Amino acid sequence: MRKFLGHPLSQAFTLLIVVLAVFFALQAVLAAALQIGPDGLSPALGLLLGLAGVVAALVSIPLARRMEGTSLAGIGFPAKNAIPHLLSGLAIGAAVQASVFGIMALAGWYTVSAVTVNVGSLATMTVLALCVAFWEEWAFRGVLLRLPEKALGSWWALALSAVVFGLLHAPNANATAMTLIGIAVAGGLVLGGGFLLTGSLWLPIGIHTGWNLFESSVFGAGSTGAGAISETPLLRGHVDGPQLWTGSGPGDLESGLVLILVSAAVGTVLLTLAAKAGRIRTPRRKPVAVTV
User: Fold this and answer.
1) By the 8 A CB rule, do 215 and 253 touch?
2) Comparing C-alpha atoms, which of 124, 148, 140, 256 is closest to residue 207?
3) How far apart are CA 222 and CA 239, in angstroms?
4) Who is most buried in 85, 213, 243, 244, counting CB within 10 A?
5) In whole angstroms, what is the distance from residue 175 CA to residue 222 CA?
6) pLDDT tens readout for residues 81-105
7) Whole-angstrom Cα distance, residue 284 to residue 227?
8) Which GO terms describe its molecular function (predicted)?
9) What tens digit of pLDDT does each residue of 270-282 get?
């Protein structure tokens, strides 16, 4: 068992199973205890369910440190530059969404019918976005990218984490095959690129938070992950354009080519910077036996 858990791939899948098992178990208990249905969640109830992910991450982080015999910094949570990276990530996530909605507005595919300032809803959704970003970035970049990277190299680990990240969004509201492709592109290139560039989870946590918050709670288009939450967005936005470009419906921008292409461009920049900084790993090679 010790030898099994000593390999990065074994560690990655063990930790991922722990995170997901705790997360889904807690969500099931909360849903049963509070009689929470699939539709019409209030922001407060959505936040409560989102905290299940934070608990799942906090349960597995000490386990990861024990398996690897390392510090918080060693598993992706360095104290140095944590706040700058988090804020930079928020700015990147917001910029991605602003670019997407700006392009759609210029094309006549996005319009705003009202502006509503609901401080309570925005504050709750901000905390919820941060909770979701924290546990998902730990699971998919901190576990499923960082650990396999040690054995497979950066590119294969990036592909693995992106594909699994996309597939696990399949149960989300309004998700389609194109949605999963779009989420895989975003997870693999933008969020994965942010981690590879810095070696820190704080940048992708910030990007993920800004991404979800601005898509759903600022521009009012919802998201595949928060489609059932009855929030009050800042802008009452309406998306009406070619499905190929804007997605298959409300809360499904991830399946549209506008978001996919913007994500691909931003992710390419991050990965190029990571490569120039020498942060791309090659696959680990087994030592060659030498006979005399």
Assistant:
1) yes
2) 140
3) 10
4) 213
5) 12
6) 999 999 999 999 999 999 999 999 9
7) 41
8) hydrolase activity
9) 999 999 999 999 8
Q: How far apart are CA 275 and CA 269, in angstroms?
A: 10
Three-state secondary structure along the chain? CCCHHHCHHHHHHHHHHHHHHHHHHHHHHHHHHHCCCCCCECHHHHHHHHHHHHHHHHHHHHHHHHHHCCCCHHHCCCCCCHHHHHHHHHHHHHHHHHHHHHHHHHCCCEEEEEECCCHHHHHHHHHHHHHHHHHHHHHHHHHCCHHHHHHHCHHHHHHHHHHHHHHCCCCCCCCCHHHHHHHHHHHHHHHHHHHHHHCCCHHHHHHHHHHHHHHHHHCCCCCCCCCCECCCCCEEEEECCCHHHHCCCCCCHHHCHHHHHHHHHHHHHHHHHHHHCCCCCCCCCCCCCCCC
Residue type, 164: V
Q: Find how far residue 195's CA is from the centre of its chain.
A: 11
* Model pLDDT for residues 228-241, shown as the tens digit of each residue: 677 788 998 899 99
Tell me, what amino acid is at 71?
S
Q: How far is Cα 72 from Cα 170, in angstroms, rounded to an integer?
A: 31
252: number of Cβ within 10 Å = 26
Task: Quote the pLDDT of residue 43.
Answer: 82
Both tokens of 213, joined, read 């918050």
